[in-house]
Write a structure and sequence with these properties.
Among the domains are: 132 residues, no CATH class; 86 residues, no CATH class. The longest helix has 34 residues. The chain contains 20 helices and nine strands. The strands form three sheets. A five-stranded mixed sheet has the order 5-4-3-8-9, with helices on both faces. Helix 6 packs parallel to helix 20 and helix 13 packs antiparallel against helix 14. With 529 residues, it is α/β, with parallel strands linked by helices. About 4% of the residues have low confidence. The radius of gyration is 34 Å and the shape is elongated.
């Protein structure tokens, strides 16, 4: 136990040492008091009682817990700043009269953005070894050219996700203080993006290999001053775009090959040819030939020419049907669409494999039908009501499918679309929809598929917006990058990954969290048919 020293007996030097020691102790105690005050203030900000649960829940607790299950959490529940990361604390001192007591801190969170140029000069050491070899220190990870990864990320996200045009993005960067030309900006957007293009291709392959269903759509596109088409393929966990110059079925099948270039004659290819009215002798001729696998279009065209199929002038075109069949064989050979249903809006080129039609597009035909007499209008609205009633019952069937309800829905479909109303145009339309019964009722055998292509329409909207604000593409790399990055951005959104984090991970932004490869995430989350 320390004893209080006799101050009167201390020399001047001993008194000085004692004062220094006491001042150090006072400083340490002041620091401890401040830490305790901060902890008390933090605890005072906590609302409600602490969530301390017993090791064995009581029956009452179980009952109260069960009543809350399944109740959706409302948007905005919980503290607004709960998920925000605080990067800096600033203590603001108050002017108070003497004798006031400190109680706590009143927190107020302000979100801000630090956006300024940051130029780094890397001074790499150069050494000359005794053997005469020159050694230069390597660049840090992520440094590729005279523009850093954070700037490259900002440019890619602004252009592809933010839909900012090149001239506006250039003006924005220069206003911030970045010394960059239009040529350099274009290079950052489209040059050396092979890794992103490859990942986008792998996203399609993973999606087609694991999907229980896909929905497809297309829209107009401009490339090199010519009209083309952009095809969308996707489902609930991936999206992929491809801009081409054709809207044919051959083009769609080439998209479904997911980057492969081969043509294959197998059982699936021969079955496709038979189902599309290719002559039996030609099918037998292709089946009997020893050559079954062709590396590219050149080899396949030469094979058709050697067999004389390309010169035949009949309907349907044998060369076209055979090519479609060989493409379908290639798709199946690579394990794509093994059990998948293709859902479309009744556009002819999408009608391959197990095909289902969009009910929204089917009803839209009735909705857009002109009905001038009041009697025709009443009949039309009555039929629309029956269709929507049937649609709601299909949704209920998806939640709880049974054989009995399946038979009832099939019979009810016939009653709706076989009726004759006396409105000639409506009767013709109902007859057309009746012919599409197998494709409209695929859902009875596959309750997992959607009844519409709304997902595809939402996905392709970003491509339409990009076309409207930025026009068409002028180079093949520019076209490929536009398709790839828009598809990757949509896929990230569906997988719950921010596009900003994804680009930062791929560009090796310093201290950035790792984001797994999107194809691997798709394979892990896919639900088999």
């Amino acid at each position: 136990m320390n004893r209080t020293p006799d101050i009167d007996a201390l020399t001047a030097q001993e008194l000085r040492a004692l004062v220094v020691e006491l001042l150090e102790r006072v400083g340490e105690l002041s620091r401890v008091v401040m830490e305790h005050r901060k902890e008390i203030a933090r605890l005072k900000r906590l609302k409600g009682r602490p969530d301390i649960k017993p090791s064995t829940p009581s029956g009452m607790e179980k009952a109260s817990r069960s009543t809350g299950e399944g109740k959706p959490k409302r948007r905005g529940d919980g503290p607004k700043t709960a998920k925000r990361t605080i990067h800096e604390d600033r203590v603001i001192e108050a002017a108070v009269p003497p004798g006031s007591r400190f109680k706590s801190y009143e927190d107020f969170v302000v979100q801000d953005l630090v956006l300024r140029p940051h130029a780094i000069r890397y001074r790499r050491e150069r050494w000359l070894t005794p053997s005469g070899e020159s050694v230069v220190a390597p660049f840090p990870t992520g440094v590729d050219g005279h523009f850093g990864p954070e700037l490259r990320r900002y440019i890619l996200v602004q252009y592809h996700q933010g839909q900012v045009t090149v001239p506006r993005l250039l003006d924005q960067l220069r206003a911030i203080g970045i010394d960059i030309s239009k040529r350099q900006l274009m290079r950052l957007l489209i040059a050396n993006q092979d890794d992103f293009l490859d990942e986008a291709q792998d996203v399609l392959r993973a999606g087609l290999a694991t999907a229980g269903w896909i929905s497809v759509d297309d829209t107009g596109a401009r490339h090199k001053g010519k009209n083309g088409v952009c095809t969308q393929i996707g489902n609930e966990i991936f999206t992929w775009f491809k801009t081409t110059g054709s809207k044919s079925r051959v083009n769609f099948l080439e998209c479904l090959r997911a980057g492969h270039s081969d043509y294959v004659i197998n059982e699936e290819a021969l079955a496709y040819m038979a189902g599309h009215a290719l002559a039996g002798p030609l099918i037998a001729f292709l089946a009997a030939h020893p050559a079954r696998h062709f590396a590219d279009e050149t080899a396949w065209s030469a094979h058709l020419a050697s067999l004389g199929i390309r010169d035949l002038d009949v309907t349907p075109n044998p060369a076209r049907v055979a090519t479609e069949g060989a493409l379908w064989g290639s798709i199946k050979e690579h394990g794509f669409l093994s059990q998948a249903v293709i859902v479309s809006d009744d556009t002819g080129q999408f009608n391959i494999g197990t095909h289902a039609l969009c009910w929204i597009h089917a009803e839209r035909l009735v909705h857009k039908l002109d009905a001038f007499p009041e009697s025709d209008r009443v009949v039309k609205e009555r039929v629309r009501g029956l269709i929507w009633w049937f649609y709601r019952d299909l949704l209920a069937y998806q939640r709880e499918p049974t054989p009995r309800r399946k038979a009832e829905l099939k019979a009810r479909f016939d009653r709706i679309f076989k009726r004759r109303t006396g409105f000639v145009m409506l009767d013709r339309l109902l007859k057309r929809l009746l012919a599409n019964k197998p494709e409209l009722l695929v859902v009875l055998d596959r309750p997992d598929i959607p009844l519409h292509t709304n997902g595809s329409e939402r996905d392709i909207r970003c491509h339409v917006t990009k076309r409207k604000i930025s026009g068409g593409t002028r180079s093949d790399p520019g076209r490929d990058c536009r398709d790839a990055f828009l598809g990757l951005a949509k896929t990230c959104t569906k997988l719950g990954i921010t596009f900003w984090d994804y680009i930062g991970a791929r560009l090796a932004v310093p201290h950035h969290a790792t984001v797994a490869m999107l194809p691997d995430i798709i394979r892990s989350r896919a639900v088999p048919a």
